[in-house]
Amino acid sequence: MIVHNLPSAFQIAFKLADMERQWLTIVGPQLSALTRPSRLERGELIVACESPAAAQMIKLSAGTLLRRVKKLTGLELPGVRAVVSRLERQREAPPPPSRRLQVSPEMVDEALNRVKATVKDPDTALSLARLEAAARTRWGEGRREE
Hints:
By secondary structure, the protein is an alpha+beta fold. Helices cover 52% and strands 12% of the residues. InterPro entries: DciA-like.
């Protein structure tokens, strides 16, 4: 692997990035939502925690956490320190663009002319005409009666 040919500072940086990617596996789903690996200080892993309770859980599971970090990333750390701080939330992807159907007024008018012959109530006829025009726009003309 190319990482072994890099200077030790770069090797550590790669292993830290790997640890950050695998944080969910290392600490589990509950703690990964409330904590993030922050930095190294004198070789010790500093974990940013959203609450004192999360910091306490990190302290209690420090031994397990260090073993998992070593097993998954190869990074051997002397200890873990939890600090309470505000976590930056990962930004969610923006919602997909609206796929709102654009129905032309001419199509609605054509459908209204067809529907008026069988439906007497004007509001119901308009609603059905809009529905027909939307269906034709979405799925095409379909079968026509002859």
